[in-house]
Amino acid sequence: MRSIVWFRGKDLRLADHAPLAEAAASGEVIPLFVLDPFFFAPERARELPHRIQFLLDSLRALEANLAHLGSRLLVVPGRSLEVVPRLAAQWKADQVLAHRWVEPFGRERDRRIAEALDREGIALRLFEGETLLPPGSVRNGQGAMFRVFTPFARAAGIRLDLAPALPAPRALPPVPEGSVFETAPIPTLADLGLSLNPNLQAGGERAARTRLKAFVGGPIVDYGADRDRMDRPGTSRLSADLKFGTLSVRMVWQAAAAAGAGESGRRFLNELLWREFSHHLLWEWPELLEQPFRGDFSSFPWRVDEAGWQAWAAGRTGYPVVDAAARQLLAEGFVHNRARMVAASFLAKHLLLDYRLGEAHYLKWLTDGDWAQNSAGWQWSAGCGCDAQPWFRIFNPVAQGLKFDPDGAYVKRWVPELADCPTAFIHEPWKLPRGRRVSLDYPEPVVDHALARQRFLATAKGHLGRGPA
Ligand SMILES: Cc1cc2nc3c(=O)[nH]c(=O)nc-3n(C[C@H](O)[C@H](O)[C@H](O)COP(=O)(O)OP(=O)(O)OC[C@H]3O[C@@H](n4cnc5c(N)ncnc54)[C@H](O)[C@@H]3O)c2cc1C
């Protein structure tokens, strides 16, 4: 049996890789990565620079790890739709093995490739692994997808008797003679017109394992208390590893479950179930990448406000936590979850701007930018998603700052203009006496919290036809 193992950017690892394990057990293995212009054309790569940097790191690590086992990663430029069926036929493969994607465009790609391969008598076999349970498999008593997280998590939990993660193969056969055509080196960032951001996490399986080990060996114990604190490194920082599959979610789940971290450990597993929920939602309702889950939000009267948008995106709204989030995003390709929620809510509710503007901006700059989770996070924050924050609950960015960044350390790290601001004023610097305010070189608030809140509530009430429940 000759198998192509098609690595597709969400499974850049050797451990717990079902397609690779299956191929290795059944004969010859040809590891393939396609440099599809959908992501790798320079004009496309510029739209996701941090994700590309992490991916290239991870790809280089995968290439080295495969070589270490005696195999070789064949990197081939071209459109997957053309390259995969053509190479499978040329290389006389019996099957192409890959992990399933939940996104509608990935599903459509796979449908078309399966058809083309089928014409050659070659099977495309998709394996689960991006999620803990197969998307679409967690249903309520009526056989429908859950619309509320808690019963979804309960139903998923009952089924989560996971088989042990698969070990990485100890050795692999060399790629068959004659299969090394059309390959190209892994591009550099410069090849794609990008420059290195030294503040990003390193990609690759080894760096991912180190992060996992560090988290389950320590901070997981305090996760329950620290996860919301923007000023503390209390979360796992594994989101990019889960996004690019340098770790499988099953490995993370099992390592966290084995850590014996009590209630904190359970809180962490619950967050992995939020990840699971967002993927199952997108599987069920592919239109969520374009449309709000709540139909009554579909023609919502969002404002057009270029100045407000620019202030939000650049971190110049005058609200310190909102601005810290914007700047952390651009600098590090990451934003603390609490800060994501506050910033997203501010865009949609305080500025009344279409949440999809922020969703696209996050997808561009986040290293962990993931279609399912980002869309769910934005819709949750805007109040239009499945089991979302109710639309009439509006985060007060000052109160959020006081509670989750009490000394202002998070704000001071990302908004250096406020480095000298007294802690008592750090989340509302406009309350400083006027003379001292000017010396901070920090903008006045772009909107007044109380007025913006009233404006959103009035607009939403008018559109949705009812007031707060
Ligand atoms: C507006 C908005 C946009 C978001 N966009 C993304 C995104 O593009 N990619 C992404 O991975 N996460 C996204 N999230 C969810 C969350 O903010 C990040 O997963 C988390 O901050 C990553 O940090 P961590 O790995 O240290 O998380 P931890 O707290 O250590 O959590 C462990 C893992 O659980 C998952 N997770 C945690 N919180 C959530 C959540 N609320 N929803 C879904 N999964 C969760 C992530 O995979 C995360 O790595 C978004 C949230 C919001 C509010």
Structure characteristics:
single chain, 469 residues, mainly alpha, Rossmann fold, Serine Threonine Protein Phosphatase 5, Tetratricopeptide repeat, DNA Cyclobutane Dipyrimidine Photolyase, subunit A, domain 3, five-stranded parallel β-sheet, 21 helices, 5 strands, 6% strand, globular, binds flavin-adenine dinucleotide
Please give a quick description of this structure.
The protein has helices at residues 18-26, 37-40, 42-45, 49-68, 80-90, 104-119, 149-159, 205-216, 223-226, 239-244, 249-258, 262-284, 306-314, 320-332, 337-350, 355-365, 371-382, 397-404, 409-414, 434-439, 449-464, and strands at residues 2-7, 28-35, 74-77, 95-99, 123-127. The chain has 469 residues and is mainly alpha-helical. It is globular and about 75 Å long.
Tell me the helix content: 40-55%
Major pleated sheet: 5 strands, parallel
Query: Can you identify the CATH class of the largest domain?
Result: Mainly Alpha
Helix- and strand-based class? mainly alpha
Low-confidence stretches: none
Q: What is the strand arrangement across the widest sheet?
A: 3-2-1-4-5
Q: What is the number of helices?
A: 21
Number of strands: 5
Radius of gyration: 23 Å
Beta-strand residue fraction: 5-15%
- Assign the CATH topology of the largest domain: DNA Cyclobutane Dipyrimidine Photolyase, subunit A, domain 3
**Helix/strand order:** EHEHHHEHEHEHHHHHHHHHHHHHHH
Report mean pLDDT, rounded to a whole number: 96
Any idea what the CATH architecture of the largest domain is?
Orthogonal Bundle
Form type: globular
The first-to-last residue Cα distance is 61 Å
CATH superfamily of the largest domain: DNA Cyclobutane Dipyrimidine Photolyase, subunit A, domain 3
Cofactor: FAD; (6R)-5,10-methylene-5,6,7,8-tetrahydrofolate
Pfam family, one: DNA_photolyase
Keywords: Chromophore, FAD, Flavoprotein
Family: Belongs to the DNA photolyase family.
